[in-house]
Specification:
Elements (H helix, E strand, L loop, with lengths): L1 H10 L4 E5 L2 H6 L11 E5 L5 H15 L4 E4 L5 H15 L4 E7 L16 E8 L1 E4 L2 E4 L2 H13 L5 E4 L12
Parallel strand pairs: 1-2, 3-4, 4-5, 5-8
Antiparallel strand pairs: 6-7
Helix pairs in contact: 1-5, 3-4
Organism: Sulfobacillus thermotolerans
Protein name: Short-chain dehydrogenase
InterPro entries: NAD(P)-bd_dom_sf
């Protein structure tokens, strides 16, 4: 998803800091873009290490200014990672900012609003699947990026659903 989302956000005028656990995949992120684009900061970081996450989110804001949009596709421990990001953003930004929380179909649906600062406008992108003649398939990266960008472009929508999120009930059970 990052490979498609990053250039789209840059095209929209955002300075993009990308945190990814896999340095090889992070390095591949820049393929197809201008060498060393000035509006991207790649960070190879395991977000499970809370101390390092605190330090790097702080460092990014010291170097580039307060964050105004965070797009997070975080696996567990999601709440702890979002709490840390929220604390660090609040330390540098006291006005409104947005968090877009991308969640897979099997993620719990509760909002983490109770762990986020009041200045955080929380939005969720709920990922599903696509029905095809042979059954079902996972969403493509392109479909996921389109759903995230729809949310970026529409700050008033609290939840964007991409694909189907429930399986239809077989007719013999109706």
């Amino acid at each position: 998803m990052l490979a498609g989302l990053t250039p789209a956000l840059i095209d929209r005028g955002y300075w993009v800091t990308v945190i990814a656990r896999d340095a090889t995949r992070l390095a591949a992120l820049g393929h197809g873009m201008a060498p060393n684009p000035p509006s991207i900061t790649p960070l190879a970081l395991d977000y499970h290490d809370g101390n390092k996450l605190h330090k790097w989110v702080e460092h990014v804001q010291l170097m580039q200014g307060p964050l105004d949009l965070v797009v997070a596709w975080v696996h567990e421990p999601r709440d702890e990672v979002l709490r840390i990001v929220g604390e660090e953003v609040l330390a540098y930004r006291h006005d409104a900012w947005r968090l877009i929380d991308v969640r897979g179909i099997q993620s719990r649906l509760e909002s983490p609003k109770d762990i986020l600062p009041e200045t955080c406008q929380y939005q969720r992108v709920q990922l599903g699947y696509v029905q095809i003649p042979e059954g079902y398939r996972w969403l493509t990266h392109t479909e996921i990026v389109e759903g995230v960008l729809q949310t970026v472009d529409d700050p008033k929508t609290p939840v964007t659903t991409v694909g189907l999120t429930t399986l239809p009930v077989p007719s013999e059970l109706c």
